[in-house]
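Worked Example 4.2. Consider the chain below.
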Amino acid sequence: MHIISSLNQFIMKKKRNILFVPFLILCLFFAVSCEKEEINKDINDKKSSGKYLPTLITDNVLSITTTSAKSGGRIISDGGTSVISRGVVWSIGEEPTTEDNKTTDSGGSEVFMSEISGLKSATKYYVRAYATNEIGTTYGNTQTFTTLATLEDIDLFVDSRDGIVYKKIPIGNQVWMAENLKYLPAVTDINAETDKNPGYYIYGYEGTELSEAKTKANYTIYGVLYNWYAAMTACPDGWHLPTDEDWKELEIYLGMTQEMANTTGFRGTNQGSKLAGNSSLWERDAVTLDEAFETTRFGAIPGGGFYPPVFEDMNGFNNIGYIGTWWTSSETEEFEAWRRGIIYEDAGIYRNSVLKSQGRSVRCIKNR
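Applying the procedure from the previous section yields the following structure tokens:
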């Protein structure tokens, strides 16, 4: 009997515990609900008095370096009450908040700009503007940017076709070769008309011997000058000849506006200087004297160009040390395509359409 009585007491105790758990959950639910109701009531009370969360947009990211950048925002509405705090937040995560890195800017106009510092080189970041009033904190749209690379960020890859090792560099969301292409399957007679056939040239070399051409200093330093037909198939597997839009993306990332990028002739401010490198190869002028010279590690150099015999007044090699030009894959008409140029006396980037028979340098861009 004693054993049965103890067993009954144990069962009744367990039943009471089982009944207590739902009761506890129910109490917690009502407590949370009450707290939410109080918060919502407070917000609704403020809304009824004409007060809301601020609204704002995030501005583009500017002045990107290896460790810093600038961004800000524009407050469209303060929500009917004073903005207490504003600034930008950033992280490597896609939706940064004030719990991540942030700036706090003083009051004033509706437009504000913040200094973002302490960043890692060659790293993609997400940034949003934020504003706080007595209702709470709200965020603008998300902008992304990638800090510039340092020498330590430059990586290498091997062209399996000939074993040549190239530098590659991340710039924004792209990966570019950081030197001119040297792939040389043949050497074209400089006096021959190539029509639509591939043409390969080494600056200053007038022979056709492949092994001899590869011993020339200009081949080692500046790489190969390709006509457009050769350039279209010159890049190694996993890489391609950049399109006109690829170049525009690069230029816009470096600070050129879309409107500037779409024009022809000299464009931008100092984007050419940012891409240029190796000052000893350039005639000393605007490109090398700009403070942004060589900041991207892209290493653009003035390899000149080649004009075939059809150019009666200027055929042959010219402008080494003064001009660097690079093909795009984008055609403008049957016998012409877009190219880019950096000229020693202007810190911008030149864009124009030229005959495909000309010899120009090639920079490959990695497939995405």
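Confidence is low (pLDDT under 50) at residues 1-8, 10-21, 23-36, 38-46. Helices lie at 2-48, 210-213, 217-222, 228-231, 244-253, 258-261, 271-275, 286-289. Compare this with Example 4.1 before moving on.
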